[in-house]
């Protein structure tokens, strides 16, 4: 180990003691020393990382922490990050997918008709709401069973969870002719299990779901309240996990918020990497539209793209559906399409969409998250846990529904203007500086945006 490697090893050791294992693997795993340039003025330690996204995160989010740990370990120079892939990197899957010995099963599962070949990483447009999920899934595809296992993704409908899951499946299948990959919805798993009980073919069912290298199960909230199905999935999960095979699961909310899910199963799901995907902002929605237009070889004016991006806020699925409608209109108009034509068509379609969340849905979501009754949430009790939940409710009613302060006060038990303003500003301040607070708000939003 040379001098530069020793310095970086000490820095990594210090960082590992300060951050979670999953965070460490995400941002620092795979980093390597390229050079240590010594000079009379200041030493420069050059570190290679895998991509620009990791480089940007290390230079902004973790810069102060890295410098502090470096100084504590006697290095007062500068740490510089550059994108660099190892020359010794071997092509993926030149060796078996998993090094551990797995039980022997008869028959194989390569892929099924549920995997859409168009769901790949190249077509997935990234932004602030999905960057971390994209990184976790792409790394898992490169190193299944080892990078993040299990990998759990949650978020509202139509934000790209299924796309990323199937992108992993397609990536692995394209690189390994021997890979056994199975994607299924939780409903499909449940129906297959019930059918196996009725037909007395549970051995074949277990061979199908446990004889794979990679198992991807979507919409796991469907398991809620189905005790025997949860038991079967729990044992399937354990067998795959213990033999080092990859498990990826998706749901519409965080594991902690999946009601009627066994504690032991929720604990397993949170045992690896948990990432969320939230609704895309306007800039990302516009980027998705431009990417899809480029794929189809058509051009829409910036004003039309901006209009669609602003009126379609429910996720990429709604966005792409609206784009299909607009492109059909473009063909009918012989390529001459005005913003007014688009507005008339889109507005007529949006009238049939689900209404925006109501105050009642927000109250229900906050009550469920904090495990309080709506009476306690909006009542007169001043217990600290009640006050905290009530302030979150005020914040969401104000920020997400745009209600006036007086209206929020009426809904939350007749609170006055100043009490509501204080509650909203307090939560707003916490969200601005605390990632855990932002995550909590995101989990609640995922509940009432369904």
From TrEMBL:
InterPro entries: AAA+_ATPase (IPR003593), Chromosome_initiator_DnaA (IPR001957), Chromosome_initiator_DnaA-like (IPR020591), DnaA_C (IPR013159), DnaA_dom (IPR013317), DnaA_N_dom (IPR024633), DnaA_N_sf (IPR038454), P-loop_NTPase (IPR027417). One of its GO terms (molecular function) is ATP binding. Gene3D superfamilies: 1.10.1750.10, 1.10.8.60, 3.30.300.180, P-loop containing nucleotide triphosphate hydrolases. Residues 114-330 are annotated as: Domain III, AAA+ region. Signal peptide: none annotated. GO terms for cellular component: cytoplasm; plasma membrane. Residues 358-427 form the Chromosomal replication initiator DnaA C-terminal domain. Keywords: ATP-binding, Cytoplasm, DNA replication, DNA-binding, Lipid-binding, Nucleotide-binding. The keyword Ribonucleoprotein does not apply. Residues 1-88 are annotated as: Domain I, interacts with DnaA modulators. One of its GO terms (biological process) is DNA replication initiation. Residues 331-450 are annotated as: Domain IV, binds dsDNA. ATP binds at residues 158, 160-162. Pfam families: Bac_DnaA, Bac_DnaA_C, DnaA_N. Domain I is involved in oligomerization and binding regulators, domain II is flexibile and of varying length in different bacteria, domain III forms the AAA+ region, while domain IV binds dsDNA. Plays an essential role in the initiation and regulation of chromosomal replication. ATP-DnaA binds to the origin of replication (oriC) to initiate formation of the DNA replication initiation complex once per cell cycle. Binds the DnaA box (a 9 base pair repeat at the origin) and separates the double-stranded (ds)DNA. Forms a right-handed helical filament on oriC DNA; dsDNA binds to the exterior of the filament while single-stranded (ss)DNA is stabiized in the filament's interior. Oligomerizes as a right-handed, spiral filament on DNA at oriC. PANTHER family: CHROMOSOMAL REPLICATION INITIATOR PROTEIN DNAA. Belongs to the DnaA family. HAMAP family: DnaA_bact. This is Chromosomal replication initiator protein DnaA.
């Amino acid at each position: 180990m040379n001098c530069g490697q020793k310095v970086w090893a000490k820095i990594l050791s210090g960082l590992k003691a300060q951050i979670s294992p999953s965070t460490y693997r995400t941002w620092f795993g795979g980093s390597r020393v390229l050079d240590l340039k010594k000079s009379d003025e200041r030493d420069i330690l050059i570190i290679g990382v895998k991509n620009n996204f990791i480089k940007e995160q290390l230079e902004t989010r973790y810069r102060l922490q890295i410098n502090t740990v470096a100084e504590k370990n006697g290095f007062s120079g500068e740490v510089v990050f550059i994108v660099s892939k190892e020359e010794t990197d071997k092509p993926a899957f030149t060796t078996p997918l998993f090094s551990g010995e797995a039980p022997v099963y008869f028959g194989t599962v390569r892929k099924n008709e549920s995997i859409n070949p168009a769901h790949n990483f190249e077509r997935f447009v990234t932004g602030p709401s999905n960057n971390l999920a994209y990184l976790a899934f792409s790394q898992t595809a490169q190193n299944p069973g080892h990078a993040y296992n299990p990998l759990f993704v949650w978020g509202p409908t139509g934000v790209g969870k299924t796309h990323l899951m199937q992108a992993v499946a397609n990536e692995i299948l394209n690189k390994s002719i021997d890979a056994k990959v199975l994607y299924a919805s939780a409903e499909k798993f449940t129906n297959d299990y019930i059918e196996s009980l009725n037909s007395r073919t549970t051995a074949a069912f277990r061979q199908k779901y446990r004889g794979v290298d990679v198992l991807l199960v979507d919409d796991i909230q469907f398991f809620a309240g189905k005790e025997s199905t949860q038991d079967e999935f729990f044992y399937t999960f354990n067998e795959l996990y213990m033999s080092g095979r990859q498990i990826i699961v998706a749901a519409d909310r965080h594991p902690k918020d999946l009601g009627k899910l066994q504690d032991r199963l929720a604990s397993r799901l949170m045992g690896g990497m948990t990432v969320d995907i939230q609704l895309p902002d306007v800039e990302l929605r516009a980027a998705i539209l431009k990417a899809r237009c480029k794929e189809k070889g058509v051009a829409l004016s910036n004003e039309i793209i901006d209009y669609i991006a602003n009126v379609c806020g429910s996720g990429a699925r709604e966005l792409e559906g609206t784009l299909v409608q607009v492109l059909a209109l473009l063909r009918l108009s012989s390529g001459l399409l005005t913003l007014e034509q688009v507005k008339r068509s889109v507005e007529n379609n949006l009238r049939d969409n689900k209404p925006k969340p109501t105050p009642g849905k927000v109250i229900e979501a906050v009550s469920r998250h904090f495990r309080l009754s709506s009476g306690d949430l909006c009542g007169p009790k001043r217990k600290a846990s009640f006050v905290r939940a009530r302030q979150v409710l005020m914040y969401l009613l104000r920020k997400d529904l745009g209600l006036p302060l007086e209206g929020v006060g009426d809904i939350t038990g007749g609170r006055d203007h100043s009490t509501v303003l204080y509650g909203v500003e307090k939560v707003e301040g916490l969200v601005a500086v605390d990632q855990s607070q932002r995550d909590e708000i995101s989990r609640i939003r995922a509940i009432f945006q369904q």
